[in-house]
Amino acid sequence: YNQLHYLHNRDIGFNRQNLLYIPMPEVGDLRNNADALKAALDQSPQIGKYTIIGDLPTNLTASAPLTWRGMENGSLVICDRFNVDENFARTFDVQMAAGRFYSKEFKENDSEYVVNEAAARAMQMDPVSAIGKMITVRGQEGSIIGVVKDFNFKPVFQPIEPLVIRHRAQGDNLVIRTAPGTMQKTLASAKACFQEVYGNTPFSYGFVDQDLDHLYSSETRMGSIFNIFSILSIAISCLGLFGLATFSTQRRAKEIGVRKVLGASQAGIVLLLTKEFLQLVALSLLIAFPIAWYAMHRWLREFVYRIDIDAWIFVAAGAAALAVAFLTVGYQTIRTAMANPVNALKSE
Predict the structure, then answer these.
(1) CA triplet 22, 14, 187: central angle to 5 degrees?
(2) What is the SS3 assignment for 153?
(3) Which of 37, 141, 239, 331 qualifies as a FRET site for 256, CA 20 to 30 Å off?
């Protein structure tokens, strides 16, 4: 549960919430259509931050060799490529480590690049020293004008790899950051702007956070299965403990009656009857803990980003197991301890 919760809530380097995306239709002159769409969006009071990008940063697949001046012979760095406009950083809340992002204040051209920290490390540079360096991607040489802080652009099962971000005014997806509680109004405004530019072209939309959650659907299903089987195993264990407690108290009914006649307290009798079961549960915990740690350690190795298996997890699990066992056995033992000893001894 903790690992799945961590996957869904860890900081991935950009704000994934309230990001609405609309696929751009590939009709006519895409660049001109994109400019017309931006003009319509700028006139809408419901639309705030927006950007037009090539692919969604949820599972980028475009890659190419990255070379730079002064690199050692035999070095090979494969980088992912990402096309964005000048609004990407502020729309996705991506932070800069050094330099600047693309901006309307500067005349951008094809000979400028923005890279991530992983790309700078691959070139054995820090973010500051990487600014101004000449790199080549797909035969196009250009200078680095900025280094963004690392953010996940693939599922978190994979480490953050070198990324080169290029400026492109056109793209395949319009992404809008909506204000909390204004999703429907923003969506209606975006649809109106879309239809103003593209007419009756089919309109569709999605949400970045839902796409990210979909990447972990198999793990979420596995988590649900774990929960179901955990509940079943606890229920079966409780039934077994209850049956054993019932059998034990019935078998020792006369002994309990004699102890009560001789002055044993109800609390002492309950402790006597439950102690044996709790000792067995404690022994089972000593056997289960190493097996559980080994199984979870192997499972967690599949994740690049993962939680640590802390001791408190075992302490909490052990305390819960003992508490469940005590409650299960306690009902029957308390009932027996409170019974009239005459009923148990009258047959003697």
Answers:
(1) 25
(2) coil
(3) 239
230-262 tens-digit pLDDT: 899 988 988 888 888 778 777 776 777 777 767
How many angstroms separate the CA atoms of 145 and 120, rounded? 12
Regarding predicted confidence, which is higher, 31 or 346? Answer: 346
CB 4 within 8 A of CB 216: yes
pLDDT digits (tens, 9 = 90+) for 163-202: 999 998 888 899 999 988 889 999 999 999 998 888 888 8
Tokens of 308: 């640590």
Measured distance CA(34)–CA(296) in Å, rounded: 49
Say if CB 148 and CB 114 are below 8 A apart.
Answer: yes
Is the Cα torsion angle 8, 14, 19, 22 positive or negative in sign? negative
Q: In the numeric block, which tokens belong to residue 55?
A: 């692919």
253-261 helix and 217-251 helix, angle to the nearest 10 degrees: 60
DSSP designation for 158 = S
> Taking residues 45-73, what's their average pLDDT?
90
Give, in order, the Cα–Cα distances in Å from 271 to each of 231, 318, 338: 27, 19, 13
Provide the CB-side half-sphere exposure for 208 (13 A, CA): 26
- The H or E element that residue 315 is part of is helix 311-337
**Both structure tokens of 242:** 């209850």
